[in-house]
Amino acid sequence: MPGDKALFGNAVREAKKLVEKVVRPGNICLDATCGSGQDTEFLAQLVGANGRVYAFDVQKVALDQTLSRLNSGNLTDRITLIHDGHHHLTKHVSDQLSCVMFNLGYLPGGNKQITTKPETTIEALEQATKILRPWGLITMVIYTGHPGGEEEAASVEDWVSDLEQTRWIVVRLTYPNWQQYPPYLLAVQKRGGVM
Predict the structure, then answer these.
(1) Distance between CA atoms of residues 145 and 178, nearest Å
(2) 161 — phi, psi (to 5°)?
(3) What's the CATH code of the domain at 114?
(4) Could you give the number of structural domains in the chain?
(5) Is residue 128 within 8 Å of 97, Cβ to Cβ?
(6) Sign of the C-alpha dihedral, residues 192, 94, 124, 28?
(7) Dist CA 46 CA 19 (whole Å)
(8) What's the pLDDT at 107?
(9) pLDDT average, residue stretch 6-27
(10) What is the three-class DSSP state of 188?
(11) What does the pLDDT look like over 57-77, one tens digit per residue?
(12) Which of 46, 56, 113, 143 allows an S-S link to 23, with CB 3.0 to 4.6 Å?
């Protein structure tokens, strides 16, 4: 029966719902923290055969997992894997991006000592804004339940709070009644006509 399902899922699901509203076949997108490749695969499906997805990670194991996932879906022809930190984004990418996805924290099932860091995440966000097309979208799924997670979240919150309202739309989706540090979503959309 209509209306008998939850309107909201977890932060990752909600990020994907927003991305689906923005990305079209032929677009160029970026997964700033590819991890196990779920977001890279999702973006590769959205951009289609004529689109391109750049996927960054500092861990070779993450890139290997992503490549394996994309091989099984026959999607490797539309992705470029980059073994580098996302704060070097513009060294590798100059295309106008429709979407940039971040999952901050550590690689699930990987070394929990290797995490995203406030200073490199902010640098990556700054670079992403420079090559995001008008009405393009940046999503950030933020995890705070690990050492350094709350500090990174605070840095990102400060960064989005400083974005000019006339140029950027910023939305936060949190889960105040969920237990054990649920990840939450910050989304930033560039207003049209702004370069």
Answers:
(1) 13
(2) -65, -25
(3) 3.40.50.150
(4) 1
(5) yes
(6) positive
(7) 9
(8) 67
(9) 94
(10) strand
(11) 998 999 999 999 999 989 999
(12) 46
Domain containing 158 equals 11-190
> Is residue 174 in some structural domain?
yes
Residue 53 falls within a domain, yes or no? yes
DSSP letter string, 47-106: H-TT-EEEEEES-HHHHHHHHHHHHHTT-GGGEEEEEB-GGGHHHH--SPEEEEEEE-SB
Can you tell me the mean pLDDT for 169-192?
93
For 72-100, write each residue's pLDDT tens digit.
Answer: 989 999 999 999 999 999 999 999 999 99
b/e map 92-121, b = 16+ CB within 10 Å: ebeeebbbbbbbbbbbeeeeeeebbbbeeb
Burial class (CB within 10 angstroms; exposed 0-12, middle 13-18, buried 19+) of 123: middle
Check: CB of residue 130 under 8 Å from CB of residue 97.
Answer: no
Structure-token pair, residue 169? 């739309």
Contact (CB, 8 A) for 186 and 171 = yes
